[in-house]
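Priority: low. Protein: OsmC family protein. Input follows.
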Amino acid sequence: MTNHITTKWLGEMAFESNNPSGHTVRIDAGEESGGSAAGLRPKALMLSSLAGCSGLDVASLIKKMKLDVDDFKIETIANLTDEHPKHYDSVVVEYHFTGSNLNEGKLQKAVDLSVEKYCGVMEMFRKFAKLDIKTIFHHK
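Result:
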């Protein structure tokens, strides 16, 4: 299976990239780089892809396991190298679950399945960055 994405220059430092879903995303540089900061930054978008990919896995498993979760978010904190080409060399991925009836064991299992088995973006990140995975439970 192949993905074909078209990314079209909109002028200045802005681009619009399509997606097989039919939606588009605007990419732009910050004002310090000659852009108008009217879109997502490419490297940051990679972190959104990582969190989104794993988040979809975990959300699907929450539903399948019929787990009670009031809130779920993923924080990604990445270190960017100083030298060019600047890239992420380490990434912390924090899974935050909030609720009054959290099944920590099953939620951890859902995270582990995503991290170790299902998430293709996570596998791509492993090729160039050290990953630190954390699961944090917030009981109401």
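The longest helix spans residues 42-64. Helices lie at 42-64, 104-118, 120-126.
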